[in-house]
Amino acid sequence: MNTLNKTLALIALASSSAAFAATDFDTLDVDGSGAISQSEASVDADLMSKFAELDTDGNGELSKEEFSNA
Ligand SMILES: [Ca+2]
Ligand SMILES: [Ca+2]
């Protein structure tokens, strides 16, 4: 809704986790679905830039196996 609140929430999330934890599969899978959606990947610019390449089955989400190729 509010970009500032969203930013603050991300900062709070980042500071409560270990450094670079955002590159960890379980951390990125915020909703625990077992796959990383594009919106979940959007917190990591590097991952986002490789998203289409990593999504080898083209279902719009990264499975743990697909993510392991990052
Ligand atoms: Ca997910
Ligand atoms: Ca996929």
UniProtKB/TrEMBL annotation:
PROSITE patterns: EF_HAND_1, EF_HAND_2. The keyword Signal applies. GO terms for molecular function: calcium ion binding. It comes from the Bacteria. The keyword Signal applies. InterPro entries: EF-hand-dom_pair, EF_Hand_1_Ca_BS, EF_hand_dom. Gene3D superfamilies: EF-hand (1.10.238.10). Residues 1-21 form the signal peptide. Residues 42-70 form the EF-hand domain. Keywords: Signal. This is Calmodulin.
